[in-house]
Design a protein that fits this description.
Radius of gyration: 28 Å
Number of strands: 24
CATH class of the largest domain: Alpha Beta
CATH superfamily of the largest domain: CBS-domain
Number of helices: 11
Helix content: 10-25%
């Protein structure tokens, strides 16, 4: 059961009534509700929600106070076990507290089921403030989104993702590009730029299999090492192969076997008929943004076929498309993001929790931006002015713009500012429009989760910046992985 209210009004006796939505989300043919607000008289009929035949709702005028109620489902009295309940004169009943006056205190309730909360979205302030008494002092608390909303939404998302496969992510037409491990590194990044793709799987023709992925992070690490006086010269790097670069890093960081050779690493990939839930979980567990979809027609894994590069944003887009005409089927999507434990937020005055966000000024060096991208393990950094107002964002994939006209050979990372790098990105936008997807995506803290989800589902977008209305001061960041960890629980 969920309940919410809107602006109150008075009945003919002068009693203030709060329009309150009561919901029974567990199915049935005929559903009614009755309670103290109806004086337990004739039950009120509930109607199925359009597009959600298992969800019934009704709006009742309920006076402020403590109320008990039950549902009459297909001839049987029932209560919602996921909502607050007590044992009353009519057996086990659900409870409802609507507070409009400061001296109104509900009776003592029996312990709630673990994690159960009431979801009261009553007035135009996004969430209602309820006054309670504690130790003789009045304290104002914010009613957070109901955990029942969250659990029901998670269950439905999990059910959908579990019954659909990675094969369904394949577009009707498109291209998939793989790079040979014997290609020179710089040539490989020219290909990424020219084709407008962020990553490419690596093919080892000697082994006859896919052995890894080349991403912008590799290019960032190469440029940082050159800037730190690495032994490899620019000329040598022009012919330095992807295989040599990968093996060199494994040797540098001790990733070797008992013979002192680079250790064999298994490619993180998924099968064409793996469920979308398994794909999302693997992406989260491995901490990667994309994963190759590989199908092998033979049981021994030979002759692997690269079908697609799957990403969290694609799976999120699938969710949005599936629930497009029945968004109420996922009640948590209507909750303001400020009421949900989601993302990273700047601590407010008096708060001791939270961690600082990684932000940079436009006059900071490109080298400092690359260092922060690597050290903070983030995909992009907000670029802000002196008032922390959002100006732009610099992402890992933006580094590929340096491939145009071999700009990487003409700059020094500590001498180029982020502002100059952003200008270079704008001038070097790929003809395939890949960089266009990296622009700032912003939301307000009062926006519903659905708005954030829809923006994260856009190609190339991995983070949404939460800003203050008017000033655009950065207040928080929600990433794709943040959204999926919350939605999948």
């Amino acid at each position: 059961m969920f309940f919410s209210g809107s602006d109150s009004h008075q009945d003919t006796s002068g009693v203030v009534l709060i329009p309150t939505r009561l919901v029974w989300p567990y199915g049935g043919r005929r559903v009614f509700v009755s309670g103290t607000f109806t004086r337990w008289s004739e039950p009120v009929a509930m109607s199925p929600v359009e597009g959600c035949p298992n969800v019934f709702q009704v709006i009742c005028g309920v006076p402020p106070g403590f109320h008990q109620y039950k549902f009459y489902v297909d001839g049987e009295w029932r209560h919602d076990e996921h909502q607050p309940h007590v044992t009353g004169n009519y057996g086990i009943v659900n409870t409802l507290v609507l507070t409009r006056e400061p001296d109104l205190v509900p009776p003592n309730l029996s312990p709630r089921t673990p994690g159960s909360r009431m979801n009261m979205d009553v007035d135009n302030e996004v969430f209602q403030r309820v006054v309670t008494v504690s130790g003789g002092a009045m304290q104002e608390v914010t009613m957070r989104s109901s955990e029942a909303d969250v659990e029901i939404s998670r269950h439905r998302i999990s059910a959908i993702l579990s019954t659909h496969t990675a094969y369904e992510l394949l577009p009707e037409s498109g291209k998939v590009i793989a790079l040979d491990v014997n290609l020179p590194v710089k040539q490989a990044f020219h290909i990424l730029y020219e084709q407008g793709i962020p990553v490419a799987p690596l093919w080892d023709s000697y082994k006859g299999q896919y052995v890894g992925v080349l991403s912008p992070l590799d290019f960032i690490l190469i440029l940082r090492e050159l800037g730190n006086g690495a032994n490899l010269t620019q000329e040598e790097l022009e012919t330095h192969t992807i295989s040599a670069w990968k093996e060199g890093r494994q040797l540098l960081y001790g990733q070797v076997n008992e013979h002192g050779r680079p250790a064999e690493k298994c490619l993180v990939h998924v099968g064409a008929y793996d469920s979308l839930k398994d794909v999302a979980v693997k992406l989260l567990q491995k901490g990667v943004a994309t994963v190759p979809v590989i199908h092998s027609p033979s049981q021994d894994g030979s002759f692997p076929q690269l079908l697609h590069i799957a990403s969290l944003s694609e799976i999120l887009k699938f969710i949005c498309r599936h629930f497009r005409h029945s968004s109420t089927y996922l009640p948590v999507l209507q909750q303001p993001i400020c009421t949900i434990p989601l993302g990273t937020w700047i601590p407010r005055i008096g708060e001791t929790n939270g961690r600082p966000l990684a932000m940079l000024r436009p006059n900071a060096s490109l080298g400092s931006a690359l260092d922060l991208l690597v050290q903070a393990r983030v995909s992009s950094i907000p670029i802000v002015d002196d008032n922390d107002s959002l100006l732009d964002t610099y992402s890992r994939s933006d580094i590929t713009a340096l491939a145009k006209d071999k700009a990487y050979a003409q700059i020094r990372l500590d001498e180029m500012s982020i502002h100059q790098a952003l200008q270079l990105r704008q001038d070097a936008t790929s003809p395939y429009g890949f960089f266009d997807g990296q622009r700032c995506q912003m939301c307000l803290r009062t926006d519903p989760l659905q708005k954030v989800i829809e923006r994260l589902a856009n190609p190339g977008v991995r983070r949404v910046f939460i800003v203050e209305a008017g000033s655009k001061r950065v207040e928080g960041i929600i990433s794709l992985s943040d959204a999926f960890r919350f939605l999948l629980g």
